[in-house]
Amino acid sequence: MWIKIRFIFSSLYWKMNYQKIASSFFTLLGTYWLIIELLDYFFGNEALDKYKNFWIVIVASVAVSVLMNLQKLTYSYFIKDKDIKIKLVIGDIFKQHGDIVIATNTTFDTTMENDFISKHSIQGKLFLKYYSKIEHLDKDIECALKEVEPVEILDRKHSKCKRYEIGTTIKLKHNDFKSYWLALSDVNEFGKPFSSFSGLQSSLESLWSFMSTNGHMDRLVLPILGSGRSSLNESREKILKEIIYSFVSFSRERKITEELVICISPNDYVNKKIDLCEIDKFLEYHCLFKHESSHSPSSSVGI
Q: In this structure, which long-range contacts are made by residues 132-135, counting pairs with CB atoms below 8 Å and at least 24 apart in sequence?
């Protein structure tokens, strides 16, 4: 609920909803005035005076209009003719109850020294929440990469030297869930990441393909991949659309999960001015209609 309250005081809320709020306000005010007229007609001024505190009605109408137009925090649709649900949620990714996708770098670096990996990132939060030592996490990653050949051996002193292909995915098991680590960006020895939208597209394909053979049909939760410190120079709305489009396209051929949850952090929702109404329409459209085109949503007209 606090997310909704915070959103009310943002400029985005008023920009998106002022017309709806105004419409609700005048509807409520008109209804009130109709009641006043009826009271006046049937009972006269004596009854009317008890209900004619106009300023209280104005304030109440504004408050109710705002509450009537609060943004939904969850949107969900089933892919047509498939028993697969896609859900869009605003909230903490670690409270969504499912396996988690984590965007990482192609060297699978984990060090948090000098903010190489931010403790505020999803990777950093997972480490702090589920590991006592960084060596334990590195051991799990090394074991998961045992059968994967690196594409390059780098000459570095303060970070890992084995670089893997963009889209490389590994699975780590935890007590009550699994995490899928997706190599989404290259990173230099100082922790500066480099990524591209085409890299995101190929990485999503690699992720779904990996899960089609290594997944467990469990609920899958992923963030807005490539946003934040991954340095992908695209809006979060465009990334969300690409994730939806890619997953729906793949799921029409192969099933990898019963439910995909795309989780938007509350800070992104408010501070990055994500238009959820537009994303909701996009999600509904692509779940309801099958497309033969292999083009990404960025080339779709009117969507």
A: 134/110
Burial class (CB in 10 A: 0-12, 13-18, 19+), 66: middle
Report all structural domains of the chain as residue ranges with CATH numbers, in order of start: 2-68 (no CATH), 74-299 (3.40.220.10)
Is the entire prediction scored with pTM above 0.85?
Answer: no
Assign 135 to helix, strand or coil. Answer: helix
Total residues belonging to the chain: 303
Tell me which long-range contacts 79-85 makes (C-beta under 8 A, separation of at least 24).
Answer: 79/248, 79/251, 79/252, 79/287, 80/287, 80/288, 80/289, 80/290, 81/290, 82/251, 82/252, 82/255, 83/258, 84/251, 84/255, 84/257, 84/258, 84/259, 84/260, 85/258, 85/259, 85/260
Task: Please state, in angstroms and rounded to a whole number, the distance separating the CA atoms of residues 10 and 18.
Answer: 12
Q: What are the φ and ψ backbone dihedral angles of 75, each rounded to 5 degrees?
A: -130, 135
Across-strand partners of 123?
none
Residue by residue, pLDDT tens for the chain (303 residues) are: 555 555 555 665 666 666 777 888 788 778 777 777 776 666 666 555 655 566 677 777 777 777 776 667 789 999 999 999 999 998 899 999 999 999 999 999 999 988 899 999 999 999 999 999 999 999 999 999 999 999 999 998 888 999 999 999 999 999 889 999 999 999 888 888 888 999 999 999 999 999 999 988 899 999 999 887 777 889 999 999 999 999 999 999 999 999 999 999 888 887 777 888 889 999 999 999 865 544 566 544 344
